[in-house]
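#onboarding

Welcome to the new folks! Below is a worked example of what a typical request in this channel looks like: someone posts a single protein sequence, and someone else replies with the predicted structure as tokens. Don't worry about understanding the tokens yet, we'll cover that in week two.

Example request:
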Amino acid sequence: MSVEDLTRLGIFLVTLTVFCSVSGHKYNYDNPSEWNQEYETCRGNRQSPIGLVREESLDNTNLPKLSFNNYNLPLSMPVEAQNNGHTVQVKVNDVVDGGRPSVTGGGVSEIYEAQSFHFHWGSQNSKGSEHEIDKNKYDVELHIVHKNIRFANLNEASNDPSGILVLGIMLKKWQFIPTFRTGLNAVYDTLPYLSKYDSTQTLNETITMNSILSGLNTRQFYTYNGSLTTPPCSQAVTWFVFKDVVPIQSRYLKRFWTLYDSRNIPLLNNFRPIQERNDREVLYREGRRSTQ
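Example response:
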């Protein structure tokens, strides 16, 4: 093997190592409490998720509501869902006029652009939300991940305490829901095609980010400074967790339980346990429902 070939091999191995570290391909949900053995940040003092309790939160009547820009405009097609071995993730494209859905307000002064959204779920015998609200867990938790526009990408943003903003939405199983379609239904329709690791499926209809919120009351929320809930657990996230709950039909919930991870093992209980609050301030905003 020539020196040139060895050099190329060395560059490839370094690139592969960095890719695996950033993408988190090394971790699984067998024992999340052991993540800190490989990812030091996972033992930090600003970790997520946490238990959110109204009586232990500071009511802030002056906290501004969240403002959503381009959330009402259709995303450019095609929109693709992927089983990445840890969750079902949907990339957020530009909207049809070329802009991006974004969020500001809620006590943050900068603009955060939506990048993707994904889900955490349990199993037939367990609920899968990551955060707890007044000691209640829910069947699924949906995260919409946003990047501070000051940064070129999520990896860069994850190195700054204000780099990332995540909206946390609780989904609760209902046996019967009045017949109507939301953007989430379009995602649920892809799940039968995503059973295998690294499989992808294009959504069969146009969606807006408002349709992903599914009529949620976005004026009522908890907010605190935390971390990513997956390795490397970067302490770069401003969390907004809504108190309002979105219904999910039982038949759709069961579709999440049919997915497999990269080891061809059922992808179940892909949630991180509750972390220590460590005297962090949690703010609560009470707000009346408003149409997006």
